Amino acid sequence: MKTGIFSILPDKASDPAIVAKRAEGLGFASYFVPDHPILPVDYSVAYPGRAPGADSDPDYLWKMPDPLVSLARAGAVTENLLLGTGVLLVPERNPLHLAKEVASLDHYTDGRLLFGIGAGWNKEEAEILGCDFPHRWTHTKECVQVMKSCWTEEESSYSGKYFDVPPVKCFPKPARKPHPPILLPSIMMGGEWAKRVFHRIVEYGDGWLPVVKSVDQLVDGMNQIASIAKEKGRDPDEFEVIVLGAPGQWTTKSSHRELEKVGINHVVLWLQGSNLEEIDKELVSLSEELF
Q1: Within a domain: residue 43?
Q2: Would you state the pLDDT for residue 191?
Q3: For residue 87, cis peptide bond before it (omega within 30 degrees of 0)
Q4: Does position 203 have pLDDT exceeding 80, yes or no?
Q5: What local confidence, expressed as pLDDT, does residue 25 receive?
Q6: Which of 13, 37, 132, 235 lies at 20 to 30 Å from 276 by C-alpha?
Q7: Is 23 part of a structural domain of the chain?
């Protein structure tokens, strides 16, 4: 079982370079960070991850450093640690610029990037940054298609609803071939998965980043991916599943054995510390329990 960590606020107080290097030394396999380019002062929908009973969203939402810069800092001081975005909000960026940034990071880190992507939940944030929020997954799909062209072709071009790119040269190419794995997230809401989530994964993704309450939910999602993949002529075994833990979740050997029984070999734990001293104690404690 690969065990990774997720740092919700990888700022100077929890420096990615220090945390990632320490984590690799203790035997952790991956380091994930989140993304919010901005957060509007006023917005209409509460954060889906708001704690039960809380009357406001957490401050970390508007304090997050840029995820690719954070991962570049982590990658520079580690050798084998996988570097993940959990998740980067693709339609809030220009895909040509993003393709260059992602390829450069993967290039410098010898193919260690795990590219978790999302379409966002905050309507006001998305629209400020140019996203067609009502059709944000269609917008995201086009962004991915533009980026794939940049990553895999000597002369890249694309023509669609949102982007019309004449032949351009975009280098460097990613170290991972054909490109870093594109991982799509999902959280079960109201007892069932979103209608299109697994179709998106099969259509243009390489894996799944689920947050689940139980192994049964996980198995249900994996079965749906396998069924759709077979319908679409893709091999179900080619899709990577990396389970993202909620705070305090999947932190015991017994819980890891449950995941392994259903074929999961990579889980990411949410660090709850807010500074280097707290995080170091947490990493040591987790490593003693799990390794």
Answers
A1: no
A2: 76
A3: yes
A4: yes
A5: 98
A6: 37
A7: no
